[in-house]
From TrEMBL:
It comes from Alistipes indistinctus YIT 12060. It is found in: Cytoplasm. GO terms for molecular function: pyrroline-5-carboxylate reductase activity. Its EC number is 1.5.1.2. InterPro entries: 6-PGluconate_DH-like_C_sf (IPR008927), NAD(P)-bd_dom_sf (IPR036291), P5C_Rdtase_cat_N (IPR028939), P5CR_dimer (IPR029036), Pyrroline-COOH_reductase (IPR000304). Catalyzes the reduction of 1-pyrroline-5-carboxylate (PCA) to L-proline. Keywords: Amino-acid biosynthesis, Cytoplasm, NADP, Oxidoreductase, Proline biosynthesis. Residues 2-82 form the Pyrroline-5-carboxylate reductase catalytic N-terminal domain. GO terms for cellular component: cytoplasm. The keyword Oxidoreductase applies. This is Pyrroline-5-carboxylate reductase. Residues 167-258 form the Pyrroline-5-carboxylate reductase dimerisation domain. It catalyses: L-proline + NAD(+) = (S)-1-pyrroline-5-carboxylate + NADH + 2 H(+); L-proline + NADP(+) = (S)-1-pyrroline-5-carboxylate + NADPH + 2 H(+). Gene3D superfamilies: NAD(P)-binding Rossmann-like Domain (3.40.50.720), ProC C-terminal domain-like (1.10.3730.10).
Length: 263
């Protein structure tokens, strides 16, 4: 599959880096565009075989899949720029823009021919560059074999979940925005560690390893978090006092508020 990524910024660049490092799409079958040569040079640093260009219309020529990874306010302008050069019978279009619905994308792609391309919405998180993403995919009009091929590509880069379009918003909150929410907890823990007397780098190392251990226990034991929490709490103990203080400060409700307000 030849893939053109329109927009080599944080997310587009992370996707390019991850796919290039995988085994299913040769780096030479990836084309990435950007506004500046500096960004393209960074993309080349991931793998010199990745094709780069400042010309969006050039990039989509011959691509099997065109991935729109630009800022939301640039979407309409970019689609107008490239749609005349797309063959909707052969080329699929994907958007990684969180709030870009199939209805909106379809209206922008409508070229008056009565033919529409296969469309995907793809929401990874930035850990895709490391092969550790959770990627949500929804499709419109995709044959099973084409969807399966796309899922295989992104499954090399972490966990892939195929959902209906209404679940793309919740998926974005839980995994794409969620990676920032997880990091926010880590940041608060590191800050607390510093206030407890650790040097910043010491606190960082301790918090990261503690998180790895917590995740590994859940993974190997097949448990939910509360099961593992119960193993380290005793009535009147330090852990229980700390958890109670976190809840009194609104910890659980604050996390849920972040999720509900980001979908």
């Amino acid at each position: 599959m030849k893939i053109a990524i329109i927009g080599g910024g944080n997310m587009g660049g992370a996707i390019a880096k991850g796919i290039a490092a995988g085994s299913l799409v040769p780096a030479s079958d990836l084309t990435v565009t950007a506004h500046t040569q500096q960004t393209l040079d960074k993309i080349k640093g991931y793998d010199p075989a990745i094709r780069t260009t400042l010309d969006n219309r050039e990039a989509v020529q011959g691509a099997d899949l065109v991935v729109l990874a630009v800022k939301p306010w640039l979407l309409e302008e970019v689609v107008k720029e490239i749609r005349g050069g797309l063959d909707y019978r052969k080329q699929a279009v994907a958007s990684v823009i969180g709030r870009s619905s199939f209805e909106e994308l379809g209206k922008l792609l409508d070229n008056g021919s009565g033919v529409m391309p296969v469309m995907y919405r793809i929401i990874p998180n930035t850990a895709i560059s490391l092969g550790e993403s959770v990627t949500f995919i929804a499709e419109q009009g995709a044959p099973k074999e084409r969807l399966d091929e796309l899922v295989s590509i992104f499954s090399e880069l972490g966990q892939t979940v195929v959902v209906k379009e209404p679940m793309m918003g919740p998926g974005t909150s839980l995994a794409s925005c969620g990676i920032a929410f997880a990091l926010k907890y880590l940041d608060a823990s590191i800050q607390g560690g510093v206030e407890l007397g650790f040097a910043p780098e010491e606190a960082r190392a301790v918090v990261m390893q503690t998180m790895r251990g917590a995740l590994e226990m859940m993974n190997l034991n097949g448990t939910m978090p509360q099961t593992e929490i119960d193993k380290v709490t005793t009535p009147g103990g330090m852990t229980l006092r700390g958890l109670a203080a976190m809840e009194e400060s609104g910890f659980t409700e604050a996390v849920k508020a972040g999720l509900f307000n980001s979908k």
